[in-house]
Amino acid sequence: MIEHHVRVHPSADRLPREEQLAWKLAAVATATGEPDADPAAMAVNRVIDNASVAVASLPRRSVAVARAQATAHGAAAPGGSVFGGSTRVSPEWAAWANGTAVRELDFHDTYLAADYSHPGDNIPPLLAVAQHTGRTGADLLRGIVAAYEIHVALVKGICLHAHRVDHVAHLGAATAGGLGALLRLPTETVYQAIQQAVHTTTATRQSRKGEISSWKAYAPAFAGKAAVEAVDRAMRGETSPSPVYEGEDGFLAWMLDGPESDYTVPLPGPDEPRRAILDTYTKEHSAEYQAQAVIDLARRLRDRTGPLEKVRSVVLRTSHHTHHVIGSGANDPQKYDPTATRETLDHSVSYIFAVALEDGAWHHERSYAADRARRPGTVGLWRKISTVEDPEWTRRYHDPDPARRAFGGRAVITLHDGTVIEDELAVADAHPAGARPFDRPAYADKFRTLTEGIVAPAAQHAFLDAAEHLAELTAADLDRLFPAVDTDAVAAFDARLPKGLF
């Protein structure tokens, strides 16, 4: 692994492009060969995971709107398939519709380090372009592994959230790089595409603050669509703002730490295996990742608390991120509002802990239902729950050793009679270091559970068989990565939507 130091340079320096971060990211992409067995197997897991959550989200409004927008742009040959759709559309629009479907339920993979990310968001645009350009399953695998490599490196090295920049700024660069690996483009072309993607996908974190809206699902889809368009322009010979990261009016200087910015981004050498995807992890529960361990902890504590009306207070001692982003440290009254949006509730650790403590379970729809959130008992318990930052949990969150890194916390429950019940959980049960790490059967079970009643058993089996043989799929076989659903029923739902411009 090579550590690349990235800082701001005045224009007079004329920083050689080979010394720029965007070029080094592009070089990682273009030097990516066929992945080793373990990264390839994990990429298959993530293809299964994405399809699970995408199919489960088909009837949700934001997904239907994205699908309708894509379909309104007409059939394209060859184009890319759309989950729940009956025609292919231009690949950037397939990336938009499928990216929204994958992200809607907040239920796929994650990687947390200096910043936050959902690297599985790279897969929809890669799959769309692979279909459109007639690439094979092996090509798609190479692109996925390269995109994860770039994404994880940026998340390790450059913190965006401290400056309230949304994490999709790293996604755009990773997707452009993954597309370069998929298509075997020259490093120069990928370099230009990465810079365009970074320049056009930088946005504020207001999409995850206050009353969180459906844009939370659209944001990564927008980045994927922008990356596809950036690659198209770069392939046609168009250039980009350079150097996009290091320039004196660039990303670091004005969006992040300013003129004194100094970051270290670890990247593999040309001949090193691409294994970053193995550092990422998926979700067992449909909620913000820092809530995963909290849900498991609540389930574990449930039998020890007795009647919940006897609870006087609950304090979750946790990391800076959990406290300030999804906890009471965010100072968002919406996180305690029973009429809040689903997107807000899945970023409220107090709500999540209350419901998990009451139900002993978590469900991607029932746990967020309006009548569920407004139950008087739930609201009463919810408002007794607060978070505090514990420096030790913050230290563990940022531990340089992934095997020791912790994303959970300690719950301190005080009853009205003074009894105190305490317990802690460092990582979610499904985490690689957890009690029940996700493996291939777990991914397959998640797919069957989330698609039950939407995808027939025979079609479930056909999809899983295709995904598990991804490296052997021909270009024509990539269609099999879209599980067969009742497209007439989906179209009937879409027909009830209000009309837009398209």
What is the C-level CATH assignment of the largest domain? Answer: Mainly Alpha
What is the CATH topology assignment of the largest domain?
Answer: 2-methylcitrate dehydratase PrpD
Based on secondary structure, the structural category is alpha+beta
User: Could you tell me the number of beta strands?
Assistant: 9
Portion of residues in beta strands equals 5-15%
Spans of at least 5 consecutive residues with low confidence: none
CATH superfamily of the largest domain: 2-methylcitrate dehydratase PrpD
Cα Rg: 22 Å
What sequence of helices (H) and strands (E) makes up the elements?
EHHHEHEEHHHHHHEHEHHHHHEHEEHHH
Instruction: Output the number of helix runs.
Output: 20
Main sheet: strands, sense, barrel: 4 strands, mixed
Overview of the structural elements:
The protein has 502 residues and is of the alpha+beta class. The chain has two domains: 2-279, 2-methylcitrate dehydratase PrpD; 289-425, 60s Ribosomal Protein L30, Chain: A, CATH 3.30.1330. It has 20 helices and nine strands. The protein has a four-stranded mixed beta sheet with strand order 7-6-8-9. Strands 1-5 form a two-stranded antiparallel sheet. Strands 3-4 form a two-stranded antiparallel ribbon. β8 (409-415) and β9 form a beta hairpin. The longest helix has 21 residues, at 137-157. The model has no long low-confidence stretch (mean pLDDT 95).
Q: What would the keywords be for this entry?
A:
502 residues, alpha+beta, 2-methylcitrate dehydratase PrpD, 60s Ribosomal Protein L30, Chain: A, 4-stranded mixed beta sheet, two-stranded antiparallel ribbon, 20 helices, 9 strands, 46% helix, 10% strand
